[in-house]
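Per reviewer request, we include the raw input and output of the structure prediction for the construct analysed in the revised manuscript.
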Amino acid sequence: MKRDITDTSDTKRRRDAGILHITERDLLVLNWIAEQFCLSFDHLRRLLGLHAKATTKAPGTLSISATRDAVQRWEQLGLIEPPRKIIAEYPPYLWLSRRGITQLGSPYPYYEPRPATIRHLYAVNAVRLTLESHSLQGNWISYRTLRRQSQTSPIPDADLFSPTLPRIAVRVIERPPQHPITIRDELATMEALTTLYSRFWYFVDTNAYTSLITAVRDHDATVNPDKQLSPCIAWFTLETQEIQEIGEVSP
């Protein structure tokens, strides 16, 4: 049987052998990481699992070995910095390198995680992953994107946007407020954001919920009904792997 001389598939395979390639899933995941500043290894497993081509052994989570393979490939391509721990008790983190930012055409500047903010970033990433794993009806607009669009303060941790629904401001409180001033600051943030948002989703540590909801109710008792905050807020407990509703937003 004569071979079609126009069939170059074997030649292409030989020429491509050993060459690292970037995939569409790589682009999606790396841009996700850029939007969120950085991503921990355990959260990366979940993100890759959400976009896996085949069913994963653990539902919605890629295996450790397959995740390591992806990380190694990105490192070899120079797209990310070598993953490392920022806080000893937390998993290793990865973030885009300067080369990665250039290659992906990312609009965000180079960022290296810091211990002071890593707990908050971890909590925000957990919220986004959980919402997206439940087929979030709307677009998650990250803090970094909102910051690029507006230089005014305050800015929520994210904006949930849908053409058919009111915009929702997402706030994440991963630790109980340590001082009354912190609570007053959060109330001031809520009031300032009401000029742009009529709905808030608060994801809070269970130990923070009581003090925050009490502060909101005390505030509402001193203002006119149209200035009250409680009707605008839906409260959720914040857990690493699961988010449960603990309050309802008024219709």
